[in-house]
Amino acid sequence: MGPHPAVAAIRLAVRRVLHDLLTDHSRTPEKAAAATAAPEGARAPGRAERPAPLVLVACSGGADSMALASALAFEAPKLGIRAGGVTVDHGLQPGSGLRADEVVLRLRELGLDPVESIAVTVGREGGPEAAARDARYAALDDAALRHGADAILLGHTRDDQAETVLLGLARGSGIRSLSGMAAVSGADGRYRRPFLHLDRQTARKACMVQSLPVWDDPHNADPAYTRSRLRHEGLPALEKALGKGVVEALARTAQLSRDDADALDAWASQAEASVRDAAGQLECAKLYALPPAVRRRILRRAAIEAGAPAGSLFARHIEEVDRLITGWRGQKAINLPGKVVARRQGGRLVIRQG
Which protein family is it in (predicted)? Predict the structure, then answer.
């Protein structure tokens, strides 16, 4: 008899991602060079055999990431992939260090290696949730570089995706925010999210039938956090009003929005060269002729290149800069995050550090 349907589902999701990683691994220049340097079955003289790819799982000890860790531990050896794990201790709760040590022990019991716990200091910029996220990803990036990992798997589920879409909608940040989390993101596609099409209950069920101990983070039920309120109050209210299927619909909206946003980003990238003069300055008349969605993407990119932090650059900032083009009345310069200033001079839009 085969595994429980929940276990089969999480393993299949991870297997697909690992197959994609192996394909990417075989296409790298080093691998291609090794393949052409010696006949099949022979090793090129003086060339060390390339090690198998390493995949890490980011694990908090919760049901989603423990299910992911168990699936990785099961699938990776069958494909010749090394599998390890990382847990991040944010230091935000009493006993967090002991909790991280327990997660490390559980990952090692699954057979993962290397495994480590990383303690971080969470700042305050952007609010507690954003600050914790920034600290966590910085630690994971560092771990990937130190261990030479090809990828880090994250346990975000379809429910997490639905919450992300609603948060983006509430911020009014545009179609990119509605596209939620990408299945592949980060430098060189480092982060992979196998569970975006699976619901949270599937992951929890997989842990239960495998007798995997899980930890429920009290922050996930704390109404002080926006995402927690959305999870326990907002989404249930929507399902009560609109019926079941809201989570699936929001996740589908994320994918459709991502496709549209990617297409607009590509259009903006191609159009940018045509709106710059010989000196590289943005020409207002040519920008004005572009569709607003394309023009604003060019403006946002220019602001980021000038030094404005992407995470602090909101739609209202870009709208103000856009009015220098579409509603020019001789207004003063626009101050942007990162001490960047945008002003109109002689038919050109100048965006640079103030």
Answer: Belongs to the tRNA(Ile)-lysidine synthase family.
Structure tokens at 240: 């009560």
In this structure, which CATH number among 3.30.230, 3.40.1350, 3.30.465, 3.40.190 belongs to the domain 276-353?
3.30.465
Name the DSSP class of 183: S
Using alpha carbons, select from 139, 143, 150, 74 the residue that is nearest to residue 114: 143
Does 274 carry a binding-site annotation? Answer: no
The pLDDT confidence band at residue 37, using thresholds 50, 70 and 90, is: very low
Mean pLDDT for 116-139 is: 85
26 is in an annotated binding site: no
| 65 in a labelled binding site | yes
- Give domain 5-37+50-242's CATH number out of 3.40.50.720, 3.30.450.40, 3.40.50.620, 3.40.50.11540: 3.40.50.620
* 96 annotated binding-site participant: no
Annotation-wise, does 61 bind a ligand?
A: yes
- 60 appears as a binding residue in the annotation: yes
- Please enumerate, as own/partner, the contacts of 172-177 that have beta carbons within 8 Å and a separation of 24 or more: 172/315, 173/314, 173/315, 174/315, 175/257, 175/260, 175/261, 175/264, 175/293, 176/257, 176/261
Q: How confident is the model at residue 126 (pLDDT cuts 50, 70, 90)?
A: low
What are the structural domain ranges in the chain? Answer: 5-37+50-242, 276-353
Render pLDDT for 55-99 as a digit per residue (tens, 0 to 9): 999 999 999 999 999 999 999 999 999 999 999 998 878 888 999
Strand partners, 88: 118
CB 84 within 8 A of CB 114: yes
